[in-house]
Predict the structure.
Amino acid sequence: MADMTFDEFKQEIADNIKEYLPDKYADSIVQVNAVQKNNETLDALTITSPDSNMSPTIYLNSFYEDYQNGRDMDDILDSIADLRVEHEVNQDFDVSSITDFEKVSDKIAARLYGMEGNEELLSARPHATMDDLAVTYCIMLGDNENGSMSVPITNQIMETWGVTQEDLRRIAQENCDTLTPSKFMSMNAVMTDMMVPQIMSDYGINEEEAIKMVNDMVPTDDKLFVLTNNQKLNGAAALLDEKMMEQIAERVGNDFYILPSSVHEVLIVPKEVGMDLKDLEAMVQEVNATQVAPQDRLSDHVYQYDNETREVFRADRAEEHQQKKEALKDSVDMPKDAVADKPKDKGDKEKTSLKERLEDKKKESKEMEKKSPEKALEKGKKKEQSL
């Protein structure tokens, strides 16, 4: 069939894919469903065999582009069949375990997406906000030779568990060190890791010699850093790692810019380097438009970390952030006389610490003894009797 619409193309795949698969897939269930991904909706093919409840997801959108560009339909079906066989999931999964919060709580991890363009996806998932970024959550099922498997946590799953969004955020942060350990390194180190194996192969030299060659080519001044996780997958969520963010601030000098290169990693630029914010924004937008796939895109904006408040915010909203910070300070740091003149109700909670209150009592007692030792002694006896 020539000149098929996308809907016709998907139906053609679903109707004929089994003919290109081995016999063991003859009784498989073939489905095509729309899947909400970061920044886009994709059409996914699943072929689930009777002896398993898991199947790799094969997205058909790029195959349709190939078809439109003249690729033969038989060749497309062959490729899809090869993908299905190559990514066979050799283990069954107990779906009911997802509903048991105790069984999966240590597998909950965070994901970071941009809010703009993801309204439909976010409406179905519990999420927190970090300025115009959204923190979502998933259950990590483990890794195999084909990659990482995970299940997004929906509002329905959260309600089944009987937990809150704040519970999910706290647990995801606690799991960070074990599930997705953060990784922070200079761009020099990243380039070295990338270039050394190739140089060893091209020049037939050992690792030590290759590293020396790279160091001679790459500038040694650390002005650009990379933050991700050990898996280098969905590593932008490392921005939620509070301990790591504090360590970065100590290393690069308090406040710093955050360039969202993708959902998998972000770049860190110390403010003291003196790069212009508009230049950084232009760089992020150009890279997103030309080099980052839509489903990997995080944001077109540059962010900033405030070491004093431990917050991430959009750098172009720095003035607004500062105003909020000053307003918060004014509400907390009230003049002492204003606090002293304000009458306290019996129901008011004491905001000073226990240690401070004990010190005040000691001072009060000493002053009383100086003025009237007899009264102080009498008061002490009454307290002893009441005890």
Notes: Residues 219 and 311 are 31 Å apart (CA to CA). DSSP finds 15 helices and 13 strands in the chain. The two ends are 95 Å apart (CA to CA). The first strand starts at residue 29 and ends at 37.
